[in-house]
């Protein structure tokens, strides 16, 4: 009987691990997955985790960087998102996923400089060793993950672009991120859950 | 006198309408043509560009999405140029689709094309609502560049990755030898 139990356990473990493997092969989170927390160094040299934000209702996690023209084009809009939504419970948490050995403009020192020059009001974290972005499945900068804090953890509710026009903010028709957070704040379903945008591939 | 002006008008129209004879974009309607420093580059929105992804002739098309600011793109560009040279006579057409921002075409793209003496066909794609068209290029594309399509009238392959010359040639050979 005991061996049967052990055999069943082994089977269960192998099934579960097989699923985990399949999941990572698909490249990161899908809508509804629970996102991992992390402890990454902020530009003020302090470590930041999602669990530090006791009062947050969720997060606007943005994989972004210094060098990418698309990230630069969206920089002001990312700052505006934090200004608007931090007080409503959805702060921006920015993460630079790039390896500075490949992209020197994205070094920690350059991040500190950029954050100071522009007066970032949100943490700008360094994914040292490039370990967190593959778990999320980010492929480019900027790449947004909106998480909702639930009892089960931080659930992924939106993945994709900030809006539908990187080059001209005045010509934007759909603000994907704002629409998603607005819906979550009203306990509604996110209208558009995934979008795609051109971006700079992450330099690992 | 009148026939002269008609002729002039006609040739003027031709040079406006044609990008470059024999190029994949030649029969398409660009949204704009940039012309500076002796380099002419046609700019398209996605709808006017899309037919380039679905040509139904005997050629093999190698279409690379890149930009002058994209380091891994610039690094692999010489390999696409090499393919263009080596396989031109085997009906392989390399098309380099620049995603540079419109205001950078004259200040960055054209000087780059000139400096690197690029010989492959260069097209500029400018359509900011990328979510509307990325999946029409390939459903597996996340939108990160570099990205490449190799296709002919039978087979189509999509790559969201960088290439060495050998890797690119190997991928091309799987379609040439089919």
TrEMBL record, chain A:
InterPro entries in alphabetical order: AhpC/TSA, PRX-like1, Thioredoxin-like_sf, Thioredoxin_domain
One GO molecular-function entry: oxidoreductase activity
SUPFAM superfamilies for this protein: Thioredoxin-like
Domain Thioredoxin: 29-186
Pfam families: AhpC-TSA (PF00578)
Organism superkingdom: Bacteria
Protein's UniProt name: Redoxin
Organism: Flavobacterium enshiense DK69
TrEMBL record, chain B:
InterPro entries per record: AhpC/TSA, Thioredoxin-like_sf, Thioredoxin_CS, Thioredoxin_domain, Thioredoxin_ResA/DsbE_sf
Residues spanning the signal sequence: 1-17
Domain Thioredoxin, residue spans: 35-177
Record carries keyword Transmembrane: no
Key words of the record: Redox-active center, Signal
GO molecular function, one term: antioxidant activity
Pfam families to which the protein is assigned, alphabetical: AhpC-TSA (PF00578)
Domain of life where this protein originates: Bacteria
PANTHER family: THIOL:DISULFIDE INTERCHANGE PROTEIN DSBE (PTHR42852), THIOREDOXIN-LIKE PROTEIN HI_1115 (PTHR42852:SF17)
Protein name, as recorded: Thioredoxin
Protein's organism: Flavobacterium enshiense DK69
């Amino acid at each position: 009987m005991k061996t049967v139990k052990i055999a069943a356990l082994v089977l269960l473990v192998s099934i579960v691990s097989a699923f985990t493997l399949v999941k990572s092969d698909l490249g990161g989170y899908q809508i509804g997955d629970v996102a991992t927390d992390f402890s990454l160094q902020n530009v003020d040299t302090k470590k930041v985790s999602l669990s530090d934000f006791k009062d947050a209702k969720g997060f606007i996690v943005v994989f972004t960087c210094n060098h990418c023209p698309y990230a630069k084009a969206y920089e002001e809009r990312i700052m505006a998102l934090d200004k608007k939504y931090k007080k409503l419970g959805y702060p921006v948490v920015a993460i630079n996923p790039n390896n500075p050995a490949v992209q020197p403009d994205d070094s920690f020192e350059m991040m500190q400089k950029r954050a100071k020059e522009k007066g970032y009001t949100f943490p700008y974290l360094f994914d040292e060793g490039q370990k967190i972005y593959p778990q999320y499945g980010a492929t480019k900068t900027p790449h947004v993950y909106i998480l909702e804090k639930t009892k089960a953890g931080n659930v992924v509710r939106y993945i994709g672009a900030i809006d539908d026009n990187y080059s001209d903010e005045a010509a934007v028709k759909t603000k994907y991120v704002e629409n998603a957070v607005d819906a979550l704040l009203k306990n509604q379903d996110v209208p558009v859950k995934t979008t795609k945008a051109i971006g700079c591939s992450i330099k690992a | 006198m009148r026939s002269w002006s008609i002729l002039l008008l006609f040739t003027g129209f031709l040079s406006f309408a044609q990008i470059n004879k024999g190029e994949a974009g030649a029969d398409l309607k660009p949204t704009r043509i940039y012309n500076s420093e002796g380099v002419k580059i046609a700019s398209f929105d996605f709808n006017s560009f899309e037919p380039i992804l679905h040509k139904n002739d005997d050629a093999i098309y190698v279409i690379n999405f890149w930009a002058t600011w994209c380091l891994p793109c610039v690094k692999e560009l010489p390999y696409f140029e090499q393919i263009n040279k080596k396989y031109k006579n085997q009906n392989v057409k390399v098309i380099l689709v620049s995603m540079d921002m419109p205001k950078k075409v004259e200040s960055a793209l054209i000087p780059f094309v000139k400096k690197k003496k690029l010989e492959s066909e260069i097209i500029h794609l400018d359509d900011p609502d990328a979510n509307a068209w990325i999946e029409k290029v390939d459903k597996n594309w996340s939108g990160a560049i570099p990205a490449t399509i190799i296709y002919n009238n039978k087979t189509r392959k999509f790559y969201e990755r960088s290439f060495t010359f050998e890797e690119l040639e190997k991928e091309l050979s799987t379609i040439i030898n089919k």
